[in-house]
Amino acid sequence: MSIVFIVLSFLLLFFIFAPIIKTSVSSSPSTLWNTLLEQDVYSSILLTIWAALIATAIGLVLGVPLAYLLARRQFWGKRFLEGLIDVPIVIPHSAAGIALLFVFGKQFFLGKLFGHVGITFVDAVAGVVIAMMFVSVPFLIDSARDGFKAVDVRLEKVARSLGASPWRTFFRVSLPLAWRSIFSGAVMMWARGLSEFGAVLILAYYVPFLNSHPVVAPILVADRFASFGLDYARPVAVLVILISLIAFITLRTIAFRGEQA
Amino acid sequence: MIAIKDLKVDLGSFMLQNINLDIRPGEYFITLGPTGAGKTVLLEAIAGLYPILEGTISVNGKDISRLSPEKRGIGIVYQDQVLFPHLSVKENIAFGLKSMKCPKREIKPKVDTMVEVLGIAHLLQRNTTTLSGGEKQKVALARALVTEPAVLLLDEPLSAMDPETREEMQRELAEMHRHLNVTIIHVTHDFEEAVALGHRVAVLNDGQIVQVGTPEDVLRQPNSEFVAHFALSRNIFPGEASNANNNGYALVDTDGIKLMTVTDLRGKVHLSLRPEDILISREPLRSTARNSFEGTITDIVDRGAVMFVTVNVPPDFVCLVTRQAFEELDLRKGVKAWVTFKASAIHVF
Lengths: 261, 349
Prior knowledge:
The complex is a heterodimer of chains A (261) and B (349).
Chain A: H1 2-24, H2 29-37, H3 39-72, H4 78-85, H5 87-90, H6 93-104, H7 109-116, H8 125-149, H9 153-161, H10 166-194, H11 198-203, H12 217-228, H13 230-255
Chain B: E1 2-10, E2 15-23, E3 28-32, H1 39-47, E4 54-59, E5 62-63, E6 74-77, H2 89-99, H3 104-118, H4 133-145, E7 151-155, H5 163-180, E8 183-188, H6 191-197, E9 200-205, E10 208-213, H7 215-220, H8 225-233, E11 235-243, E12 249-254, E13 257-262, E14 267-273, E15 279-281, E16 291-303, E17 306-312, E18 316-322, H9 323-328, E19 336-341, E20 346-348
Parallel strand pairs in B: 3-8, 3-9, 6-7, 7-8
Antiparallel strand pairs in B: 1-2, 1-4, 4-5, 9-10, 11-12, 11-14, 12-13, 14-20, 15-19, 16-17, 16-19, 17-18
């Protein structure tokens, strides 16, 4: 049995890694460097990284308290709510983009509300951010919730009996102990945000950013492929893959440093 | 000192109710009950960590039942200690003082005094995950005690330990209590712990307190099945241990008879002897067993295949015999009989 399982595993691993490795080594470093120096490309990559970072930061501020409540409190409809939170993962992302447009468009409820304070979403960086956030925040919430669940509730009880207020207990006990799960959830969220295509395409295509009008990196790859073909799209694809990989590996290394301690 | 009146707590499947207790300052109070009797919840309710439905809890005359846990000044130590895994031993112990905004320069001396008392000064810089069970227990005790709680709650503090560590910890608890004179409520399902440590015992059964008294009183007149069952499963006597001729042995004086035991303890002790470890005979036995006494049979409890026979020497020894042996020896109330048991069958604590 083991042999069959190992062979099947190798088939799958080959399927995952072959395209990534083949693409990564397909462009020469000089081609990559020149591509990176194109304004279209670097402003697109910066926009993507920046917007995903903002989305993750907002996700942390709003998602961690929600995750804590889900881990600690029992309330009516909790199961349903947990299912609902994962909906953005399972619906087509172009449909998610349409749904967002319906709420954040200029003539709709939240769009109007934010319009009063000068924030618009359609074809703006803010639109990229909420599109990324919508489709990626479930990863953060789920991971943070599991992290809080793994913290023995009696540690919090002991802290309270030792004179710690609920706030102090949260910041000195619960949060540090769940931190690794929260951080790896945030990395997942950020990575998922980076790669978002469908929802961003609908809500915010070309956006004003750094004195130009870039599109996010996944759209740039698709655009170049559709308009100019494989050779033109490939270096951008390689750059996007490499940057994502380096960031992902670095962050995971930080998160799991001292795991054995 | 601590008074609990008409406390009622919802445990989901049943209620903890009509809980009335008056615990004296400096008392070592034991709450005894079978597993699932709601002992842990009772402690958490006292500490404010579990919501109560009705009743009041007051400490030194002040009603604390509506206070949040951090304002109650009640320490709790759980069975498996639950030390903060991300903090060192020192940081664990200092946690409460920092939470209570104790001035920085006072924290170190307080921590140092406490670790001195508990003999764990050498552990201060250690990581909590590398400690043994007994060490963790002492750190958890230090962490609670350093904040000078009005009451210290102990949730089955000895249950998760191997027998050797448990006996050592039991002595340490008694020592710590003598030294610091702190008021303790200790819950357990182990009657020996109650006898060894408790000034008084409250027996908890079906969510109610069914009996309160000294361990000896409760043992002699049990009004709960839990204690009655225990009373039949162990002979427990108080006694005074003194040196025997041979090393490693002690003579324990109890009720005017001297029992040979294997222990290093001296002074006031308790003895526990299992009914199945006692032989009954109608004639004196010549055997390797060091203890043999003549008495009169005063009680017989029929449990089908086995019988519990009480022989009054005094004290009363409850002995377990099979029905067959019982009939062959023609044991009856009022007849003379000999009880014989090995020195090593007696557990001294």
